[in-house]
Amino acid sequence: MFNIATAQKPAAQALRQDGLSLLLPADLTTSLQLPNPQWTQDWNPLTDSWNRLPPDAHLRDGGHYRRRRHACFIQELPSGTLTQTPHRAHWQPTEYNALHGGFERWFDPVEPAVAQAQAWVDLLNHLGNLFAQVQAVPRWYIEAHQFRIDTTGGVGRPTPEGAHRDGVNFVVVLLVARQGVKGGETRVFDAHGPNGMRFLMQEPLTALLLDDARVIHETTPLLPAHDHPGKGFRDTLVLTYRAEGFQAP
User: 23, 32, 220, 240: least CB-packed within 10 angstroms?
Assistant: First the structure.
């Protein structure tokens, strides 16, 4: 399982051996072979779209702390052709999400200017290429979720369903921004044993890559920071890669 050596391994090797890879901002573009500094310069303007996420209307715990957009893509391999699908519902079985599974959740789509931006396309493609080094597949079915968790009501819950798997092959959690909050500790556990790890994602462009069959993950609640009088928030991009098609009823 994860240790200091894991963070020093190439991402594909860490995924094969440990089931996860933690990429710090300085390592992200190098590990994914993204053109830097051009990619970072092109990515930064897209982060403003997190300020325009509509509320998540499907929270079953009665909360109002989550905003969200969603989009789906298919990546053909080895060509790397990425195609956005017609907008569709997000669905998970209750086996993987006891709180929000078992029914279709329709979210507003990712803004076209974001989903079609070269930096967005490059990120999804290069991640898919990396995962194909670990599990060779003809294509990936990708779901993209823009999240903002805020502390408007005092507490924000990034994973209200608790520690979970997503029923996919790989999961990516990319930190986009973090402001005026405390907490939000990421925890990853071996799905078949007692080992685990915990850490705090604080710098934008920190990325956690997970082999979903091998690990369970969660993020602890967010609270307002004492030294920040305004509303705090944590923005992430969560991507899932699945080989057997999109999950559906």
Answer: 220
